[in-house]
Write a structure and sequence with these properties.
Layout lengths: L24 E4 L8 H9 L21 H14 L10 H10 L3 E6 L6 H10 L6 E4 L12 E3 L3 H9 L3 E5 L10 E3 L2 H10 L6
Parallel strand pairs: 1-2, 1-4, 2-3, 4-5, 5-6
Helix pairs in contact: 3-6
The chain binds magnesium ion (MG).
Amino acid sequence: MSIRDGGSIPSIYNEEGRMSEKKNRIIVDIDNTLWDFASVLYGKISHYGVPEPSEWHGDFYKRYFSLEQLMTYVDEIHNEQDDRYPPFPDAVNFLSSLRKKGCHITIASLRNPNKRDVTEKWLKVHGLVYDELYLVPDKSILFDNHHAIVDDDPRTLDKAIIKGLIATGLKFAWNKNSNHTLFSRLTDVLEHLNKSDCCRD
Ligand SMILES: [Mg+2]
């Protein structure tokens, strides 16, 4: 298994072979960070009578179906994720602004590693810039070599804070009661990162 498909220690070298400094390295999630995954998932499972995403919490699905069934729907969406599914309006500028200020952008998703091709294509077709893409079962394997993370999963943000990362992301029903610094738009997340020492010269 290659490192990019779920290995244990990420590279600290960029594509030119130069080491990128930890303070310049930021992890960015995909689902519910760069695009509205929850609404598409809701479209697939609403017939079970599940509540709308504005009422979801971590285990919202358990009353309706199994984790295995949920993952089948999640996998289906990742298979279908193409130019029909746009990123959030400020996602392109969010990533390009991070790039311009010198950040090394590591896109990380918990999705099945066999979705690498479709994921790369989706990022490219929408002009979402990045340096590395990891499809991993646990993003914490990336934490030692990164300074910040943008993610909607409060459990992932909890682990990141313990490791000393700047942890932030978009605010949703499932994370709004956490103690993390969350925002309604990526533009506001960017402003927060700009105020921190992330990627600062
Ligand atoms: Mg997410």
